[in-house]
Design a protein that fits this description.
With 444 residues, the protein is of the alpha+beta class. Helices cover 26% and strands 25% of the residues. It has 2 domains: 114 residues, Uridine Diphospho-n-acetylenolpyruvylglucosamine Reductase, domain 3, CATH 3.30.465; 213 residues, Vanillyl-alcohol Oxidase, Chain A, domain 3 (3-Layer(aba) Sandwich), CATH 3.40.462. It has an 8-stranded antiparallel sheet with strand order 15-12-14-13-17-18-16-19, sandwiched between helices. The chain has a 5-stranded antiparallel sheet with strand order 5-6-10-8-9.
Length: 444
């Protein structure tokens, strides 16, 4: 295969890596050739490298690096629809179309996430309660199948394949192009309001109330708090600032994963950091205007996440059992010796479109854990709790979930398996996550 080289690729959490043959196609014919040539040994697309675990890694096969498929092909200002190649990043969409007043809805926390990766993982942002997930805004996808055929899928054209591809973690094919409807962006600045939350029960009530009035909302929790302060934190709500100015992209340049060495985790600093964050917000709350890039892309605002080896637990609980599920997970973390770096709660409002879409109406919980002693045991315990309460784990962040729990969490898995058996019976598209979770096996 022309242009092939052996590269070491890592998950964003730096706990998973593979050294594999890789190819960087720059045009459609080269991408089709890469899929056909790599088919005997297996193929997987690899975009911006922002998936934490192993969903974008293939050990026995060829990695198809999509970042050079990075062209914005068409834009309709009347409808907000942009047509672009899979390797275009959220940041590149904003650099070109942000000044014209458009912004990607359901935008995740990194500007380096590609459009192809956003589709494959059905990503979401701080606006999930209103905007849903990324798949809700995808009009159509041009997909390279295992045969090398390029097909266009949408809600109307091959809808079953469309729903298998949205959130399908790259197993249906390689995204070549997509049409996405952007949101209007009236400002390059965000008006954000923060207030202290005393405990977990207050937090859940405040999130539900905020979801009715604010397009963006997120809660930062003190994972070290105990007693009456259990679940305390800061609720931040936000909306576009009509009179503010800023920049769409963060000013700092964060190195790529693997470009700098890993450093040890310092749990003794976390309690002090959480206390400092709370002190920054007065009893009366705090209002401020932020540059949009600083608000939407926190992973680009700090170098911390490119230094640490970590697992990210990202779970969602259904509305009916969210309070009990969140409490049990946070109690399990508090009882362990693993100190979380970050704990975040969001409100979800719309279920995802895809067979393996993560989002369901309820509350999501993110916990970043250092990869070290006790982390995997804690994750196993927590994943069991999530399953017991009808929740699910986000595959884009996962590195430890079992096949049995995965099948329990994703009831539309049989529908995905039917699609895969029809379009890729030889299992050309594969990944370490798919093997671990036995995605293709009906007995999983």
């Amino acid at each position: 295969m022309p242009g092939i080289a052996r590269l070491t690729l890592r998950g964003f959490g730096r706990t998973n890596s593979v050294t594999v043959p890789a190819v960087r196609p720059e045009r459609e014919h080269a991408l089709v050739a890469a899929v056909r040539d790599g088919a005997p040994d297996g193929v997987l697309a690899h975009g911006g490298g922002r998936s934490y675990g192993d969903c974008a890694l293939v050990k026995d096969g060829t990695a198809v690096l999509t970042r050079r498929l990075d062209r914005l092909l068409d834009f309709d200002a009347a409808s907000g629809e942009v047509v672009c190649e899979a390797g275009v990043t959220m940041g590149e969409v904003l650099r070109v179309l942000g000044p014209r007043g458009f912004f990607p809805p359901a935008c995740p926390g990194s500007a380096r996430v590609t459009i192809g990766g956003a589709i494959a993982n059905d990503v979401h942002g701080k606006d999930q309660a209103r905007a849903g997930s990324f798949g809700h805004h995808v009009r159509w996808i041009d997909l390279v199948l295992a045969s090398g055929e390029v097909v266009r899928v949408s809600r109307d054209a091959r809808p079953e394949l469309f729903e298998a591809t949205i959130g399908g973690v790259g197993l249906t094919g390689v995204v070549l192009r997509a049409c996405v409807t952007l949101a209007a962006a009236p400002s390059t600045a965000i008006a954000a309001r923060a207030r202290r939350i005393a405990h977990l029960d207050e937090l859940l009530i405040a999130l539900d109330q905020a979801a009715r009035t604010s397009p963006y909302l997120v809660a930062l929790i003190d994972g070290t708090a105990r007693g009456d302060a259990f679940g305390r934190g800061i609720l931040e709500t936000a909306e576009p600032a009509p009179d503010g100015t800023g920049t769409w992209l963060p000013s700092s340049r964060v190195p790529e994963v693997g470009a700098i060495p890993s450093v040890p985790f310092l749990p003794s600093a976390i309690a002090g950091w959480n206390a400092w964050r709370l002190r920054r917000v007065s009893e009366a709350g705090r209002s401020r205007t932020l540059a949009a890039g600083r608000f939407f892309f926190p992973l680009e605002a700090s170098h911390v996440y490119t230094h640490l080896r970590m697992h990210e637990l990202h779970a969602v609980f259904p509305e009916s059992d969210a309070g009990k599920g969140l409490r049990r997970v946070l109690e399990a973390v508090g009882d362990s010796e693993v100190v979380p770096l970050l704990v975040v709660v969001k409100r979800f409002g719309r279920p995802g479109l895809g067979h393996l879409s993560f989002a369901i109406p309820g509350h999501s919980l993110v916990i970043d854990l250092p990869a070290g002693a006790g982390a995997r045991e804690l994750l196993d315990r927590v994943e069991g709790t999530v399953a017991e309460h009808g929740g699910r784990i986000y595959l884009a962040k996962d590195s430890t979930l079992s096949a049995e729990r995965f099948a329990r969490m994703y009831p539309r898995l049989p529908a995905l398996r039917r699609v895969l058996s029809e379009i890729d019976p030889r299992g050309v598209f594969r990944s370490e996550l798919a093997a671990r979770l036995r995605v293709r096996e009906a007995s999983a």
